[in-house]
Amino acid sequence: MMLRSEAEDLQLTKDSAGYYLIATSADLKAFAADANRYNNAKLTANIDLEGTPDNKWTPIDTFSGTFDGGGFTISGLYIDAGNKMGFIGTLASGAEVS
């Protein structure tokens, strides 16, 4: 299990269009740890987070960028975060998820 502090140390690769590429659960956790820094992101593979009560997903609090799923899936989210239930807790005005 990777902790958020470990994920924050990872650097995501940026493509020529300015999207940060997410291919692994470690990439996804790095993105989530500072989502508005990365702002525009794109999945490049299916990701299984293998969530359990001991390996919970903390929803991204408020996201204001663009998240392109690219037709891929994120599975295995285990969420126990009060009223913020989902991959992203709140979408800011102008944010896009596809």
Fold and architecture overview:
The protein is α/β, with parallel strands linked by helices and 98 residues long. It is built from 3 helices and 9 strands. The protein has helices spanning 4-8, 25-33, 35-38, and strands at residues 13-14, 20-22, 40-43, 47-48, 60-63, 66-68, 74-75, 88-91, 96-97. Strands 1-2-3-6-9 form a 5-stranded mixed sheet. A two-stranded parallel ribbon has the order 4-7. The chain has a two-stranded parallel ribbon with strand order 5-8. Strand 1 and strand 2 form a beta hairpin. The longest helix has 9 residues, at 25-33. The protein is globular, with a radius of gyration of 13 Å. The termini are far apart.
Topology readout:
Blueprint: H1 4-8, E1 13-14, E2 20-22, H2 25-33, H3 35-38, E3 40-43, E4 47-48, E5 60-63, E6 66-68, E7 74-75, E8 88-91, E9 96-97
Parallel strand pairs: 2-3, 3-6, 4-7, 5-8, 6-9
Antiparallel strand pairs: 1-2
Which range best describes the helical content: under 10%, 10-25%, 25-40%, 40-55%, 55-70% or over 70%?
10-25%
What is the string of SSEs from the N terminus onward? HEEHHEEEEEEE
Overall form: globular
Q: Strand arrangement, largest sheet? A: 1-2-3-6-9
Instruction: Profile the largest sheet.
Output: 5 strands, mixed
Query: How many angstroms separate the termini?
Result: 28 Å
- Uncertain spans: 1-8
Please state the CA-atom Rg, rounded to the nearest Å. 13 Å
Number of strands: 9
